[in-house]
Amino acid sequence: MSADYLLAMWDLKCLWTNEVKEKEALKLEPALCRDIGIIVSADYLLEIWDLKCLWTNESAVYRSWENVKFNACYYSIIGAGVIGSCTAYYQSQNDNVEITVIEKTQVACASSGKAGGFLWSEGDGDFSRASFRLHRELAQSLNGKERYGYRAMTTYSVTVSNTAQNNGTNDTVPPWLYQEKVVYCDELGTQKDTAQVHPKLFTQTILDEAIATGKTKVKIGHGVTELIYSSQDPTLVTGVLLDDGTTIDGDRVIICMGPWSGQFALGNKALSSAVHYLPVNATRAHSIVLKVDDDAPIGAHALFTEIKDNDGKMQHPEIYPRPNGTVYICGEQDVSEPLPKSADQVKMDPAAIDTLCHLAKEFSLHLDASQDHLVTQQACYLPNSRDQNPLIGKHPAYKHLYISTGHSVWGILLGPISGLIMTDLLLNTSTNRVPQSCLTVLSSSVRFK
């Protein structure tokens, strides 16, 4: 199918519908006619074929897919965290795509593997509600209960004193807490609107499903050092350069690097403009995972808490029991340690871990942070945009470059809807899962500068 033919069909469409548009508008997404280097949508090609049939009285039988050949579109996704993995998953559900996920360290090696995995339909408005529904659908279709610990939860806001304050007969308090220390307890969410997953298992499962389609491959062990640009157009991204000197071509490149998105230099050396970076910064968060006894009566209760530490400072640990007999506890965020170059270089603050271990035993007899029960102590960095909303969309300065980052504490929750929205952008389709007003805010070009 020649470029002249496509442009002739565009002229025909304009003539038939009395539309006046520039021929550049022909370059829609995402099916790639590689032989001519023009991006057009399959639906658009069929639309103009129908117009040609009307205009020339040719039989529409030639509209069959056997007579319109489409080559695969190649996508390079930088980052194998939950955002990159969900993007690969939803992309892989389509035809004529080939996806490469590039990861410097390991799958879910950063916050995607060290988060609490808490899901709340009201966490971030319409965006969260849409993704919460997707999580529920994925759990049903992928056996999430068994594969990655998906389950509904009841969520509470709890204030605890370091000493007994009552007679311990509050029926609204989860029974595995020290009843006599609870001075306030309120239900924040029910099993209809709060749930959980094991974040690392969820991320790995969703990526495995993408790989199983035969359309996705994962390259682990080498990071992306820079983008590759077209020699004909210095603002057109055509692939990536890895730290071992190899290149990977891509019709579209999607940056899903979490907090490292803000450290990745954008800018073609062939241009006189200075290198710039995405407006994403990082905050560090610590967490511990405790093993509880098999007979511990800990239920599916997520807790957002408030308690004073030994220094009299108010702390707000979050507590998430998991169905595998462990309890995840995370604490305050800090910016005292700069973001390292890679996820395997993240440093913990021993004092932060000690604080979590001390506070754990103040909540329940069953939260024992001794060495025999302390399964994991860890830290990770969260990606934050300036306005605390994710950055999702086309980059305004570079063609074929897409961004999905800045999800802060809601990365696991928002992974599915972020992957679906990015797929819609790449395929020029719409699932109508999120109100357009929300999408406009997320992809506003001024937010990428």
Automatic annotation (TrEMBL):
Residues 77-425 form the FAD dependent oxidoreductase domain. GO terms for cellular component: cytoplasm. Pfam families: DAO. It comes from the Eukaryota. PANTHER family: OXIDOREDUCTASE TDA3-RELATED, SARCOSINE DEHYDROGENASE-RELATED. This is DAO-domain-containing protein. It comes from Hesseltinella vesiculosa.
